[in-house]
Amino acid sequence: AIERTLSIIKPDATRRNLTGKINAKFEEAGLRIVAQKRIKLTMDQAGQFYEVHKERPFYGELCEFMASEPVVVQVLEGESAILKNREVMGATNPADAADGTIRKEFALSVGENSVHGSDAPDTAAQEISFFFSGLELVG
Ligand code: CMP
């Protein structure tokens, strides 16, 4: 089915001017960027977005990193977009990521791993509505 998923190009990647190269990977995989904006998260916003991880030892570090510099938030659309995006991103830890994936090519560490992508249909819907209004989403 045609799906939408929420993607974030993280501060380690925006800082190194990798937005275009990362977007090319999405587009080459057949994912269409149907909404996109560059924003700087506050600590509160980062904390709310990653609330599911709040008991993890890396939560504070994760939120500080995500609020440190601008990110590009985007909605990707396509056939099986949620899984396809996860394949294009590669494993969370770049040391485990397959050749040709975004994290293998660009990520610096498990924390500074260049991209985030929703992991399931329910989280995709929730994460898209966290950043985008209906008016910002055209097909
Ligand atoms: P993401 O897909 O954005 O979802 C949660 C993030 O937590 C994950 O990518 C990683 O960047 C980050 N993360 C996971 N494990 C660790 C860790 N051990 N240390 C720091 N950050 C981590």
**First-last Cα distance:** 15 Å
Shape: globular
Per DSSP, the total helix count is: 7
- CA radius of gyration is 14 Å
Count the E strands.
4
Give the low-confidence spans: none
Bound molecules: adenosine-3',5'-cyclic-monophosphate
Query: Main sheet?
Result: 4 strands, antiparallel
DSSP strand (E) fraction?
15-25%
Please give the share of residues in helix.
25-40%
**Class derived from helix and strand content:** alpha+beta
Question: What topology emerges from the helices and strands here?
Answer:
Elements: E1 2-9, H1 11-15, H2 19-28, E2 32-39, H3 43-49, H4 59-66, E3 71-79, H5 81-89, H6 102-106, E4 115-117, H7 121-131
Antiparallel strand pairs: 1-3, 1-4, 2-3
Helix pairs in contact: 3-4
Function: Major role in the synthesis of nucleoside triphosphates other than ATP. The ATP gamma phosphate is transferred to the NDP beta phosphate via a ping-pong mechanism, using a phosphorylated active-site intermediate.
Subunit structure: Homotetramer.
Active site: 116 (pros-phosphohistidine intermediate)
Explain how this protein is built.
The chain has 139 residues and is an alpha+beta fold. Helix content is 40%, strand content 20%. It is built from 7 helices and 4 strands. It has a 4-stranded antiparallel beta sheet with strand order 2-3-1-4. The radius of gyration is 14 Å and the shape is globular. The two termini are 15 Å apart. 32% of the residues are buried. Bound molecules: adenosine-3',5'-cyclic-monophosphate. This is Nucleoside diphosphate kinase. It is an enzyme of class 2 (transferase). Its EC number is 2.7.4.6. It is found in: Cytoplasm. It catalyses: a ribonucleoside 5'-diphosphate + ATP = a ribonucleoside 5'-triphosphate + ADP; a 2'-deoxyribonucleoside 5'-diphosphate + ATP = a 2'-deoxyribonucleoside 5'-triphosphate + ADP.
